[in-house]
């Protein structure tokens, strides 16, 4: 890929722009960057000339972003963050035999993957693993991951999705809540407080329907955007929750959560391992695919 040097800005110039925008002052930006005020001013001027737009407007003793500057700033911050992350990852894996970058669903990563990860690393000594949370599909060309844990349908642009497992959820609650709202049948849950995963608001309605219960209040209750928060809320006694059993192994063992009824329900989607097309033959990615398939089997 051939890049035009005229269109690639200097990183230090972008740092000066971001710092001046954050402080609303070239003087304070200069102090943070250990430069003179004139040096920062010159860098901003060079960037404005390169872009052909005015990035700042002078108002009294401060500088404020122009409309063009406000549009430019988020992209500059994203680029600086990616540059820093690139350097950190390169430094972290500099002495490693191999490295593996994994994008994982947040709760899946913290509650299922990480506790099992020591086994993978024992089998592949010298491997450095980088795990980051991602809840939605992304462009592998923009975000440099070797693979991703995906819940949904086996569809991901420019990637191959390997089936891992289906998802089965069970109704669970804390012992304290069950002492106040004892449950002997699905209908008994209807009048109790319900907890919802914001990204899957129909779960309780589907569960009640699957169990032959007409329930007008299936959508009522507190909502949370991560399974991890739903689990904590259920443990705290805030309500009944529909949860994948594999995510609450610790709570079930400790007795802080109980499965209310033996009425599991398989959800409409499944878990997949998404691997970008250009990394299908990466040896460490292939090894991880074989290992995780064994773990969920």
Automatic annotation (TrEMBL):
InterPro entries linked to this entry: LysR-type_TF_proteobact-type, LysR_HTH_N, LysR_subst-bd, WH-like_DNA-bd_sf, WH_DNA-bd_sf
Q: Where is the HTH lysR-type domain?
A: 9-66
Entry keywords, A to Z: DNA-binding, Transcription, Transcription regulation
Q: Name one GO molecular function term.
A: DNA-binding transcription factor activity
- Superkingdom of this protein's organism: Bacteria
Q: Return the Pfam families for the record.
A: HTH_1, LysR_substrate
Q: What family does this chain come from, according to its entry? A: Belongs to the LysR transcriptional regulatory family.
The protein in question is named Transcription regulator LysR family
């Amino acid at each position: 890929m051939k890049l035009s040097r005229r269109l690639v800005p200097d990183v230090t110039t972008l740092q000066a722009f971001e710092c001046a925008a954050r402080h609303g002052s070239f003087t304070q930006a200069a102090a943070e960057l250990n430069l003179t005020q004139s040096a920062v001013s010159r860098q901003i001027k060079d960037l404005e000339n390169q872009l052909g737009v005015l990035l700042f407007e002078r108002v009294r003793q401060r500088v404020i972003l122009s409309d063009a500057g406000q549009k430019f700033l988020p992209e500059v911050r994203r680029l600086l963050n990616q540059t820093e992350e690139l350097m950190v990852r390169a430094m972290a894996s500099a002495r490693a035999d191999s490295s593996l970058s994994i994008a994982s669903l947040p709760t899946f990563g913290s509650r299922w993957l990480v506790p099992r990860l020591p086994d993978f690393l024992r089998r592949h000594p010298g491997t450095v693993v980088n795990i980051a949370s991602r809840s939605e599909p992304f462009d592998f060309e923009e975000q440099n991951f070797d693979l991703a844990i995906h819940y949904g349908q086996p569809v991901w642009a420019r990637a191959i999705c390997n089936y891992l497992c289906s998802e089965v959820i069970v109704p669970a609650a804390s012992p304290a809540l069950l002492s106040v709202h004892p449950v002997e049948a699905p209908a008994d849950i209807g009048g109790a407080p319900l907890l919802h995963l914001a990204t899957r608001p129909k779960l309780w309605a589907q569960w009640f329907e699957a169990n032959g219960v007409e329930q007008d209040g299936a959508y009522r209750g507190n909502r949370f955007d991560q399974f991890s928060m739903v689990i904590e809320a259920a443990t705290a006694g805030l309500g009944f929750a529909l949860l994948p059993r594999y995510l609450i192994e610790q709570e079930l063992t400790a007795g802080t959560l109980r499965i209310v009824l033996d009425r599991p329900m398989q959800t409409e989607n499944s878990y997949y391992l998404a691997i970008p097309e250009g990394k299908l033959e990466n040896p460490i990615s292939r090894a991880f695919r074989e290992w995780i398939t064994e773990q969920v089997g």
